[in-house]
Design a protein that fits this description.
With 154 residues, this protein is an all-alpha fold. It contains five helices and two strands. Strands 1-2 form a two-stranded antiparallel ribbon. A hairpin with a 2-residue loop joins β1 and β2.
Length: 154
C-alpha cells in the first residue's frame, strides 16, 4: 500500500471521526442536530430517531466513530510495516465499511425517505475510503500480473 494513499485514508478517518463523534455527542445529549438543506427529503430527526439509528441500544454514530478509529489505526500500522495478515484485515475492514455505507444510504433513501446530511457525509466518506482501497488493491494486482507475465516471457 502506498504511503500517500495511507495518509489520505488517515485524513479521511479523522474527518469521519469528527462527523461521527459530533453525532454521538448529540445523541447522548438527546438533541437532533440542526439540519436543513431546504429540500423536502432533508430530515435529520427522522433518520437519527429511527429504529435504524441504534444497534442493540448502541448509536450507529458511536459504532462509526469506533470504526474510524480502528481504520485509522490500521493505516498507521500499515505505514510502519506491511504484512500479508495486516493487509487482509485492512481489506476486510474497508469492505465492511463500504457495505455498511451502502446499507445506510439505502435505508435513508428507500426506507426512511429522509436524508441526514451528517450521515450522508459519513456514508460518502466511507465509500471514498473503500474506493481508494479497492483501486490500490486493483493496481497492485495488475502490477503483480504484469511482472509475472514479464518473468514468464524471459
Amino acid at each position: 500500500m502506498k504511503k500517500k494513499i495511507l495518509f489520505v485514508l488517515i485524513a479521511l478517518s479523522i474527518l469521519g471521526l469528527i462527523d461521527a463523534g459530533y453525532l454521538t455527542y448529540e445523541h447522548y445529549r438527546n438533541i437532533i442536530p440542526p439540519c436543513s438543506m431546504h429540500t423536502w427529503f432533508s430530515d435529520c430527526g427522522a433518520v437519527l430517531s429511527s429504529k435504524y439509528a441504534t444497534i442493540m441500544n448502541i448509536p450507529v454514530a458511536l459504532l462509526g466513530a469506533m470504526y474510524y478509529v480502528a481504520f485509522g489505526f490500521l493505516c498507521l500500522l500499515l505505514l510502519r510495516k506491511q504484512t500479508k495478515l495486516l493487509s487482509i484485515i485492512f481489506y476486510i475492514v474497508a469492505t465492511l465499511g463500504g457495505a455498511a455505507s451502502l446499507t445506510f444510504i439505502f435505508l435513508q433513501f428507500f426506507v426512511l425517505h429522509a436524508i441526514c446530511p451528517y450521515c450522508m457525509l459519513s456514508d460518502t466518506n466511507l465509500l471514498v475510503m473503500f474506493g481508494l482501497v479497492v483501486s490500490v488493491a486493483w493496481n497492485q494486482a495488475s502490477d503483480k500480473e504484469e511482472k509475472r507475465i514479464t518473468v514468464e516471457k524471459s
